[in-house]
Amino acid sequence: MKHKVIVIGASGTIGKELVKTLEAGGHEVIRVSRSSGDYQADIQDKQSLDSLFKAVGTFDAVANAAGDVAAGPLEQLTDENYAFALGNKLMGQINIVRTALPHVADKGSFVLISGVLTQEPILGGTIGTLVNGGIEGFVKAASHEMPRGIRINCVSPTVLAESVAIHPYFPGFIPVEVWKVAKAYERALFGIINGRIITV
């Protein structure tokens, strides 16, 4: 069965690979990024998300691969660092679900993104661990309240093999190829699981 899927963060490493995977499967993909793609939206801006979903119309699923956090030593983190991460990767994803829900087809699905820091903190990653844990908690709880047979899941990748520049911040972590992350999204989008955190 072919689906109409909105991919937010389509210009990033994971987003590009996900678009390629979905199109190879014959699905219709709507690419969304801050400044490129079929539509532009910023997950920090709830109004831009609302405008996006109204413009696209009915769709079967939303896969989010966007979300930024601040990093740094605990004692140096500022109110602004926390506010940015909470407003972007956490509330940004929650607002994706809140604004898209009225437009998603019956038995549709959402896939959000967290990351390995939930289970395996690193130096300077306090905010990342905080935010990822919040996303995963939201997904687990919201899955019990989704209407019309709609499912919600989360993909939690470790450091990507392609993101060589940040490997020094993840000593001893075994990187994962981005195509494997895209396959996890595919499973979450079109399988039967609900309320699950898929670690990759």
Automatic annotation (TrEMBL):
Coiled coil: none annotated. One of its GO terms (molecular function) is oxidoreductase activity. Belongs to the short-chain dehydrogenases/reductases (SDR) family. This is Short chain dehydrogenase. Pfam families: adh_short_C2. Keywords: Oxidoreductase. The keyword Zinc-finger does not apply. It comes from Spirosoma endbachense.
